[in-house]
Amino acid sequence: MSVDERADGAAYATPDEADDIWVQGADWEEIEDAVSEGRLTVNLGPQHPSTHGVLRLVLELEGETVHRVQPVIGYLHTGIEKNTEYRTWIQGTTFVTRMDYLSPLFNETAYSLAVEKLLGIEAPERAQAVRVILMEFNRIASHLVWLATTGMELGAISVMIYGFRERESILDLFEAQSGLRMNHGYIRPGGLGADVTDDFEEMCRAILGFLPEHIAEYEDMLEQNPIFMERTRGVGVLDVEACKRYGVTGPLLRSAGMARDTRTSDPYCGYEQYDFEVPTRTEADSYARFLVRMGEIRQSMRIIDQALDRLPGGPVMVADKKIAWPAQLGIGGDGIGNDPTYIRHIMGESMEALIHHFKLVTEGFAVPPGQVYVPVESARGELGYHVVSNGTTKPYRVHVRDPSFVNLQSVEHMSRGHLVADLIAIIASLDPVIGGADR
Amino acid sequence: MGLEENLPAGILLTNIERFVNWSRSASMWPATFGLACCAIEMMATGAAHYDLGRFGMEIFRGSPRQADLMIVAGRVSQKMGPVLRRIYDQMADPKWVLSMGVCATSGGMFNNYALLQGVDHVVPVDMYVPGCPPRPEMLLDGIIKLHEKVRREHFRDKVVH
Amino acid sequence: MSEPATTTTGRLDPEELERRVQARFPDLAANIAYGELTVFVPPERLLDVLAFCRDDDALLFDLLSDVSGVHWPGGEHVVEPQLSTTGWPPNRLTRDRGTVEVAYHLASLVNDHRLRLVVAVDDDPDGPPTVPSATGLFPTADFHEREVYDFFGVHFEGHPNLVRILMPDEWIGHPGRKDYPLGGVDTEYHGAFIPPPDERVWSRDVPGAGGGKVGP
User: Fold this and answer.
1) Is C136's Cβ below 8 Å from some Cβ in B?
2) Chain center to CA of C136
3) Contact call for residues A126 and A313 (beta carbons, < 8 A)
């Protein structure tokens, strides 16, 4: 019924008509039907500027207070898990890196570690150290995007600009090593796609040179900012027991006081060699998560510093030629093409090398049957890969335990009784990446 | 030679079509419509380093009703397709669609059950930008080319979809 | 928030975990491969085992980190020894009926050890494979079980809201199953049309190995 059609001509429903709900608009009758016990069901998303991508939330509101939240996901379901079953083990890297697109290197590492575990091989030390360095840079980049988007969603646009500015310098490093700013496909089963560039250490040191100062600046901008504190302190409290119930890991669990980090509990890639702390807080609210993430950025810089100091030489790919793709490739004379030395070798010098190359590229290598579960600590929590092989050259099943997917379950617990505006701060503090949640 | 000679300084003559097209291309506001990886690059394009504001596009509108350009940044799933079409329908004419990245353009590497094999199955697309994800420079290039295309548009060709 | 004041025994090896679980459930099969313990549980005893693993003083698996499904269709699977990486015998596996395995990955935040429970259920053509829901013990199983239901059609009895989670509500079929095609369309490249990945011919592949048709 449109406003014009109303018998009494009133543009608003008066309190007499509907106890405590005031609704304006043409679809009053439909809304009245949807209202039960004074509650209003509101749809937020999947296209909404403040829901971090295509997350949809069905809210039940009492006035402006959130009574129930139901996250609806799947708007970015890409079928990546199924798609990997039709590709070789090596090609899997290209797929998994596109899942959680803010932490591609964690996906690649976890997948590679799982395949390596099935194969019973271990990547060379240099590859492990480079993985650690790149993963920690990735953690910093991911937290910077978190800072940027959270700032934007809470109204601090300048933080968004700064966060992306710092991220650019890290992406330049990634691009120099892997050729792509995101979705690298650089960390592969057996090691790395190629060795790092000659100026790798220099580039890393340059970033470590200015980053601490800038991070301190951004922390100063927000840490004592009264608006930011009002919006985040005491908002979205999730204690340790609730974290366990909902399977929540990562910065959320650490903000509740539990120093749980897969890097220390199940060390991989040689994390046990590095000296770092796991930052924790006890407040368990959105503000504590901000402090924890800031602390993690500092610890990541510490790890990178140590890893650069002891960056070993040697190969970056396992020696087994049945598994390893050539990792010491050069580039063609035009700056992009294939490695001329390698092409000369397989095309002109050795028939066996050509056959081997052809088999490895078209068929891939076979992986012994079995199943493994490999967790790594991504920027959002425990990222686990459950990889099943039946002995062929393709994965039988790749399942990903993505922290965004699991953490989203806790939204309802955290936001009940808060205002709608707080809900945005809570979602932001979760840092969900829908590409990871939907896969 | 006619009117131009008698004009005082500071006045230019053009036709209404060119004038309208120029103003449309000079402040084309994109809708905030990020889907996947490309959305992050789209945000990076809007941030300080690449500064989309140089092209009058720094304001990403939260509401599709205020937006002129939909940048489909990322893979479009079967579940998202109807939502995307609804957002497109909510945008006021004239409107343009830029398909960013291979997933939005053709489904890309994800040739499977879950994804639409190209967003042009759902909405008409004016400009395709390749890449996985495209660099911000590539997005800027696509946007500038779209601006050029808009400047050359004729009212009579513009059909309402 | 402090950690629970339970006396912990610290991290246990897979062998110790196996002994501990089998002391309570002697008839459960278990194996240790790749340094990971897998315990095979019949569906009707799943909740008992999960509750034991969660509450036992030495195990203290307080986090259900993942629930994942694997579909093994019926028929014979032969995986020949691969020439490129030799080292294991041909893998022959014959199943009269298909099986859906649901793998529960448990982790202990206190003791830092991990365990996998595998529940294998018949892929019954007459009715959906049924597993009791773990949501009563671990609320985090909610999304995980919905995902396994969505992709494998496993019915979790007692789940509060067992609906599709990632696929659209009206979707037909369960895409994670091996008998569900990958889908996709022909793609044109330089004038030739290339079929979608699951319809391409891979002559060395075997049925059910995720490779599609057997050639030529």
Assistant:
1) no
2) 20
3) yes
Q: How far is CA C95 from CA A102, A353, A387, C74, in A?
A: 42, 40, 21, 5
What is the DSSP code (8-state) at residue B114?
T
**Dihedral of the alpha carbons of C212, A388, A360, A177, in degrees to the nearest 10:** 120
Q: At A85, list the tokens.
A: 């079953």
Q: Does A95 touch chain B (CB under 8 A)?
A: yes
CB pairs under 8 A between A and B: 98
| Rounded-to-integer distance, Cα B148 and Cα A414, Å | 49
User: How confident is the model over A181-216, as pLDDT tens digits?
Assistant: 888 889 999 888 888 888 999 999 999 999 999 999
* Contact at CB, B111 and C168, closer than 8 angstroms: no
CA distance A415 to A160: 24
> pLDDT band for position B47 (50/70/90)?
confident
Q: Which among B40, B74, B83 is the nearest to A47, CB-wise?
A: B83
Phi–psi pair at A174, nearest 5 degrees? -60, -40
Task: Locate the chain A residue with the closest alpha carbon to C204.
Answer: A363
Phi, psi of A55 (to 5 degrees): -85, 135
Going across the sheet that includes C36-40, the strands are C29-33, C36-40, C114-122, C99-107, C63-72
Cβ of A438 within 8 Å of Cβ of B34? The answer is no
Say if C182 is an interface residue toward chain B (CB within 8 Å).
yes
Cα C30 to Cα C21: distance, rounded to the nearest angstrom = 9
Among candidate residues A27, A21, A85, the one with its CA nearest the CA of residue A387 = A85
Given an 8 Å threshold on Cβ–Cβ distance, is A384 in contact with C105?
Answer: yes
DSSP state of A36: B
**What's the pLDDT at C82?**
52
Contact call for C70 and A390, based on CB within 8 A: no
C-alpha span between A425 and A146 (Å, rounded): 12
Q: Does A54 touch chain B (CB under 8 A)?
A: yes
**How does DSSP classify residue B115?**
B
- Nearest C-alpha neighbor of A360 from the set A85, A90, A84, A87: A90
Q: Mean of the per-residue pLDDT values for chain A?
A: 85
Please answer yes or no on whether C167 and B117 come within 8 Å at the CB atom.
Answer: no
Q: Please tell me the distance from the alpha carbon of residue C190 to that of residue C201, in angstroms, as a whole number.
A: 20
**DSSP letters spanning chain C:** -PPP---------HHHHHHHHHHH-TT-EEEEETTEEEEE--GGGHHHHHHHHHH-TTT---EEEEEEEEEE-SEEEEEPPPSSS--S--EEEEESS-EEEEEEEEE-TTT--EEEEEEEEE--SSS--EEE--TTT-TTHHHHHHHHHHHH--EEET-TT---SSS-TT--S-TTSTTS------EEETTEEE--GGGS--TT--TTTT------
For the record, the structure tokens of B70 come out as 């939909």
CB contact at 8 A, A416 and A391: no
Burial class (CB in 10 A: 0-12, 13-18, 19+), C49: buried
Burial class (CB within 10 angstroms; exposed 0-12, middle 13-18, buried 19+) of A355: exposed
CB distance A365–C140 less than 8 Å? no
Whether the pLDDT of residue C1 is over 80: the answer is no
pLDDT value at position B107? Answer: 86
Residues of C in contact with A118 (CB under 8 A): 34
Q: What is the DSSP string of A346-398?
A: IIII-HHHHHHHHHHHHT-----SEEEEEEEEETTEEEEEEEEE-SSSS-SEE
Do C138 and A371 count as a contact with CB atoms less than 8 A apart? no
A327 Cβ contact partners less than 8 Å away, ≥ 6 residues apart: A191, A192, A193, A194, A195, A315, A316, A317
